[in-house]
Design goal:
By secondary structure, this protein is of the alpha+beta class. It has three domains: 4-174, Beta-Lactamase (2-Layer Sandwich), CATH 3.30.450; 229-308, Helix Hairpins (Orthogonal Bundle); 314-461, Heat Shock Protein 90 (2-Layer Sandwich), CATH 3.30.565.10. Helices cover 50% and strands 17% of the residues. The strands form three sheets. It has a six-stranded antiparallel sheet with strand order 1-3-2-6-5-4. Strands 8-10-11-13-12 form a five-stranded mixed sheet, covered by helices on one side. A two-stranded antiparallel sheet has the order 7-9. Strand 2 and strand 3 (114-117) form a beta hairpin. Helix 6 packs parallel to helix 9 (430-440) and helix 8 runs antiparallel to helix 9 (430-440). The longest helix has 50 residues, at 229-278. It starts with a helix and ends in a 5-residue tail after the last strand. The relative contact order is 0.06.
Length: 466
């Protein structure tokens, strides 16, 4: 379909023409049937009237007078005597109406011999076929079909009154044409009205299209143009798409700004350290190496955060053993804890199975354990505890570090927000990533300072285990 307007115009006009054709055909058939019934009634009535005009005592002169009245120009009525020969012809018969040539009448005696034949029923000296039964019938005579009503008279004679079929056809055609011509004359007006109504009905689509067409890539306002009920769903879906597009662009702008903000400082510091190393400052290369490590960590965290933000669909879930997951991550982080003489303790617990995406759960727990080890001083400890409460799994990671001031507990989960101890190398993205993953995995993450010192992070699974 290349154009809705063109499709509706051609389809509706085609339907209109088809309906007009069906209407005219139906009118023709119904009119013909109704007229046949009316003509049948008229024929029977005329037969009753005409039968009263002649009887057994009718004289030849009276038959002569009837024959004169029934004759038409070029077609004479005939009265047959006992010799079966015509007795008279009218020299100049008159025709008062054109349709008279479509009607005729005839009389027969009890032996079905003709007595009197009206005009057009005695063509070539061959009389119209005698009636065979009472009632209506179709008779073919002289290349024409006649609708005939026949009835017996009391003295044994028969009378038939007939109407030529072509008269019915002509009248039916006139009625059908009378119905068709007004429709045909009204057709251009109807087509114009259809086209105008379709154009008016499709205007809301044009308005909606212009609203979208005239916007540039920076205009992400919702579409507020009034639309009919049928287009409200489309407008709503467009607005939802614009909103999602705006969120995506905002994430891109925020990611670009965040990356520029976080990478500027370590790059500048590395440049300074490398300049110092060129001039022989001791330890400058070590500082530059540390800067490269910090830059690498920032890039990794930024890429991970971008991957989480730009893939909003929930990943596939699977059932995972939580103690096994924590033990594997602890083995990976053990060298970091050992290098700082820290204790990494995994508390014993009953088997706990959780449902979620294994990769994201590993990233979440690793980030939390890594943060705990980084912010715990040398010789400190990190304790990981887990269990099930009312069929809901939970996990806590507690450290013996400095904790977080109460005023920063809510803000520290925002990107590039770090705890007060700025001596610890970090990007300020670890807890932001943890919050993002927790939301995707339907976990509630809470942070609280321990009474004995340090920070405790708790994860609660919102969905119960099976």
């Amino acid at each position: 379909m290349t154009s809705i307007r063109r499709y509706l115009n051609f389809t509706l006009v085609g339907v209109l023409l088809m309906v007009m054709g069906l209407a005219v055909t139906a009118a023709y058939l119904i009119t013909r049937h109704e007229m046949e019934e009316i003509f049948d009634a008229q024929l029977s009535l005329q037969a009753r009237v005409v039968s009263a005009l002649v009887d057994v005592e009718t004289t030849p002169q009276e038959y002569q007078a009837v024959a004169e009245k029934l004759s038409q120009p070029g077609h004479f009525a005939r009265w047959y005597g006992q010799t079966d020969s015509p007795i008279s012809q009218v020299a100049e018969p008159k025709l008062y109406d054109h349709e008279e040539r479509m009607l005729s009448v005839g009389f027969w005696d009890a032996d079905r011999r003709p007595i009197l034949m009206g005009a057009r029923w005695d063509s070539k000296n061959e009389a119209f076929p005698a009636p065979v039964k009472e009632g209506h019938r179709w008779v073919s005579y002289d290349s024409h079909r006649w609708r005939v009503f026949s009835m017996p008279v009391d003295d044994g004679r028969w009378i038939s009154v007939g109407l030529r079929e072509s008269f019915q056809d002509e009248l039916s055609n006139k009625v059908a044409l009378g119905n068709f011509v007004p429709l045909l004359l009204a057709l251009p007006i109807l087509i114009w009205l259809i086209a105008r109504l379709i154009r008016r009905g499709l205007k809301p689509i044009d308005h909606l299209s212009r609203q979208v067409e005239t916007r540039d890539e920076k205009d992400l306002r919702p579409i507020a143009v009034a639309v009919p009920r049928e287009l409200q769903t489309l407008r709503g879906e467009l607005n939802d798409f614009i909103a999602r597009l705006g969120q995506t662009l905002e994430r891109e702008r925020r990611f670009t700004a965040d990356a520029a903000h976080e990478l500027r400082t370590p790059l500048a510091a590395m440049k300074i350290h490398l300049d110092n190393a060129r001039y022989g400052e001791p330890g400058a290369l070590d500082k530059a190496y540390n800067g490269v490590e910090r830059l690498q960590r920032v890039v990794e965290q930024l890429l991970l955060l971008a991957r989480l933000e730009f893939h909003q669909e929930r990943p596939a879930s699977q059932t995972t053993s939580l103690p096994a997951l924590v033990m594997d991550l602890a083995a990976d982080l053990w060298p970091l804890a050992e290098s700082r003489q820290q204790t990494l303790e995994i508390a014993e617990s009953d088997p706990v199975s959780v449902s979620g995406n294994l990769t994201e759960l590993e990233i979440l727990v690793r980030n939390l354990m890594d943060n705990a080890l980084r912010y715990t001083p040398e010789g400190g400890e990190v304790v990981v505890t887990m269990g099930i409460e009312n069929r809901h799994p939970w996990l806590t990671i507690a450290d013996s570090g400095p904790g977080i001031p109460e005023a920063l507990l809510d803000a520290v989960t925002q990107r590039f927000q770090r705890a007060s101890d700025q001596r610890i190398s970090g990007s300020g993205l670890g807890l932001s990533i943890a919050v993002e993953i927790a939301q995707r995995q339907r976990l509630r993450m809470t942070l609280a300072n321990r009474e004995s010192g340090g920070l405790e992070v708790r994860l609660d699974w919102l969905d119960p285990v099976a």
